[in-house]
Amino acid sequence: MKHKILVVDDVPLNVKLLADLLDAKGYTVITASSGPQALKLIESDAPDLVLLDVMMPGMSGYEVCEKIRSDPEHAMLPVVLVTALDPAAERARGLDAGADDFLSKPVAQAELLARVRSLLRIKSLYEEVRARKAELLDWNATLERRVAEGVQQVENLGRLKRFFSPQLAELIVAGGADDPLKSHRREITVVFLDLRGFTAFTETADPEEVMGVLSEYHAAMGRLILEHEGTLERFTGDGIMVFFNDPLPIPDAASRAARMALEMQREVAALAVGWKQRGYDLQMGIGIAQGFATIGGIGFPGRIDYGAIGTVTNLAARLCGEAVGGDTLMSQRAVGALQADVGTERLDDLTLKGFQRPVAAYRLLGA
Known about the structure:
By secondary structure, this protein is α/β, with parallel strands linked by helices. The chain folds into two domains: 4-131, Response regulator (Rossmann fold, 3-Layer(aba) Sandwich), CATH 3.40.50.2300; 180-366, Nucleotide cyclase, GGDEF domain (Alpha-Beta Plaits), CATH 3.30.70.1230. Helix content is 48%, strand content 24%. The chain has helices at residues 12-24, 35-45, 61-70, 87-97, 109-160, 166-173, 198-204, 207-227, 253-277, 311-322, 332-336; strands spanning 4-8, 28-32, 49-53, 79-83, 101-104, 184-196, 231-236, 239-244, 283-300, 303-309, 328-331, 343-346, 361-366. Strands 6, 7, 8, 9, 10, 11, 12 and 13 form an eight-stranded mixed sheet that branches. Helix 2 (35-45) packs parallel to helix 3 (61-70), helix 5 packs across helix 6 and helix 8 packs antiparallel against helix 9. It is rod-shaped.
């Protein structure tokens, strides 16, 4: 890149001599015959260095230099004062005005070119430092933005992990899945479970005992929900509602729900042995139904839960209520969606609260 040098002198011959020399050495030269004209060219043409005559009518080189330095944009623009006066006597005044160097008239060519090269090198280094500073500021701003985005993602991830498996929550935060909190309609398989004998247990047991049982129960059920990638809709004491096929489609939603229910029954049966030794007679009933529901965020600013609304959730809850301890009841639609890895047994139709007609029901038998 060719450097641009501004030559300022009110004597045309002086201007020509300097301009010809610099042009011959490969510099781009622009000229001005007065201080005001020089200041305008500095703004419009952005020279890399200024050779400035001291003694000019109207506005001296010192005044031009002071004007240049008054603008922070030109704080590091090299200015060389060219004077026929005694440089030693004028140096202090020139330094006060902001000059970087001095040349005496008549100008020695070798000295002129050496000083020009030196000052341009210093200016280039300054511009590189300034560019690096700008890059650093931009990098810091980007880093701050990314940190803020990261904090928000962590908060979002923590919120989503309340409902979804960790893998799915991370996928949603990364943008690999649609926003699940936006209301939408989808066919889902709903699993509802609660403990038989829990109400009687809470009436006679100490609160610490109740919390201990719930802690064991929730830990075991929560682990299985995560393993089967179910979506947790709610915990309500001993009642838990989970559904499959949302927010990401699952081709074997009914079968996965059934397999999870079988494992849950085995886990609770194992826990019940210890509970019985402590005098707690608790078993679990499960209901599974399949159908369409409206799903999305439910709540208010500051507290949003993920919920499903529809007849299918009520049906799963009613089937759960009809299931005896250790049993899992399924709706006809859920059974119809099962793959061949689990078996069922047809029961008599059930008359359920909230349903005008008897409902076909099936007992889940196992693998």
